[in-house]
Amino acid sequence: MSTTPPSKPSKLPPFDPTDPIGVDDLLGPEDLAIRDTVRAWAADRVLPHIAQWYESGELPGIRELARELGSLGALGMSLEGYGCAGATAVQYGLACLELEAADSGIRSLVSVQGSLAMYAIHRFGSEEQKRQWLPGMAAGEIIGCFGLTEPDHGSDPAGMRTYARRDGDDWVLDGRKMWITNGSVAGVAVVWAQTDEGTAGAGIRGFVVPTATPGFSAPEIKHKWSLRASVTSELVLDGVRLPADAVLPGATGLRGPLSCLSHARYGIVWGAMGAARASFEAAVDYAKTREQFGKPIGGFQLTQAKLADMAVELHKGILLAHHLGRRMDAGTLRPEQVSFGKLNNVREAIEICRTSRTILGANGISLEYPVMRHATNLESVLTYEGTVEMHQLVLGKALTGLDAFR
C-alpha cells in the first residue's frame, strides 16, 4: 500500500467573502450557468420594480413573467418530459435561491407552478392529463394553483371539508380553499377533496379543475403585509361539475398532497437562503460605507460579530441545501430530512434578516433596502408548507418513534 500523501496545491486560493467556505466548488459548469442565468433574469426583470410592486401590493404582468420563466426552463424545472427542463434537484434549488434573493413572491410563483400543481399532475396524473396540461404549464402559457389549505384546516389537512360526490359518471365538488398562491390568475387548479371512497383521510382525492368551469371562483386576498408581490386567493367551489377523468388516478389519501408539499418544501430550503443572502449583502455593503464615530461601522467589533455570525448561518444553510439536493438527485432524500432543512433554513433566514436590519438601523425599515421586505416575506414562508411546530413534531417523531401530533 502506498503511503504517499495526496498532493497539495502549491498556493491556496484567495478568500472569497461571497463564498467563504467554497461551496461553489461543489458546482459544475452547467450548475453555474443555470444559476447565473436565473440571477441575471431576476436582476433585470424583478429587482428594478420589486419595491414598487411590494408597496402597491400587486404583481403586475404576472402572465408575462410566467412566460419568461417558462422560456428560462424554470417551471417544472426538475420534471422530465412534456416540455419540462429535466434539471437536477440541485439546479432547481439554485434557481429557487436566486429567485427568492429577488423576492419570496417570485419564488412562490415558480414553486406553486412546478413543485405543487405540475408535480401533482406529473406524478399522479393520467397520460392524457399530462399531455393536456404540462406542456402549456412548462411554457408559462397556463398558470396553475394547488388547493389544499382551507379556512379551518391548515396543519391538519385530513380534516378538510371540501367534498367531491359522485353524480352518475361525474364528480361534483363543493368547498373552499384558502391562501392559494396564483389562484385568481390560474387556468387550472389541482384541488384536493374528501370522497366516500375511504375513511379518516383515506378517501382524499385530487382533481384537475379547469378554472373556467362553472361554479369555480377565486377572489383575491387583499390587505396582506407579507408576500405582497404575489397573487394570493381563496378558491370557492360551488357545485363544480367535472368528468370522471378529472380525478388524478395515481393519488389516494393524504400521500398524494403530502408528497407534493415535500417537493415544494425542498425548494424553500434553498429559497430562504436567497432572501437571507440578499439581506446579508445589504448589511455588509452598508457596514462598509456608513460612518459613525469617525469610521465605518463595519470596523467596530460588535458589527463584525454580527456579520460573522450571519455568514456562518447563511453558508451552513446553503451547504445543507446542497446536501439535501444531492440526496434528492440520488433518490435517497426522506421527508424528515426535508423538514430538517425547511425548519433550519427559514428560521435562520429570518434571524439573518432581523440582524441585518439592526446594522442598517432606521434605514433597515425602508424599501430602498431589501431587508424589511425579505423579513416580512419570510414570516409567511415560515408558516406555509408546514409551520415550525409541525416540522418540529415530524423530527420529534423520527427521533423518538413517538407520535405527538394528536
From TrEMBL:
Keywords: FAD, Flavoprotein, Oxidoreductase, Transit peptide. Residues 1-17 have a biased composition (Pro residues). Belongs to the acyl-CoA dehydrogenase family. One of its GO terms (biological process) is fatty acid beta-oxidation using acyl-CoA dehydrogenase. Residues 1-20 are annotated as: Disordered. One of its GO terms (molecular function) is flavin adenine dinucleotide binding. Residues 253-399 form the Acyl-CoA dehydrogenase/oxidase C-terminal domain. InterPro entries: Acyl-CoA_Oxase/DH_mid-dom, Acyl-CoA_Oxase/DH_mid-dom_sf, AcylCo_DH-like_C, AcylCo_DH/oxidase_C, AcylCoA_DH/ox_N, AcylCoA_DH/ox_N_sf, AcylCoA_DH/oxidase_NM_dom_sf, Glutaryl-CoA_DH_mitochondrial. Pfam families: Acyl-CoA_dh_1, Acyl-CoA_dh_M, Acyl-CoA_dh_N. PANTHER family: GLUTARYL-COA DEHYDROGENASE, MITOCHONDRIAL (PTHR42807). The keyword Calcium does not apply. Residues 29-141 form the Acyl-CoA dehydrogenase/oxidase N-terminal domain. This is Acyl-CoA dehydrogenase. SUPFAM superfamilies: Acyl-CoA dehydrogenase C-terminal domain-like, Acyl-CoA dehydrogenase NM domain-like. Its cofactor is FAD. The keyword Mitochondrion does not apply. Residues 145-240 form the Acyl-CoA oxidase/dehydrogenase middle domain.
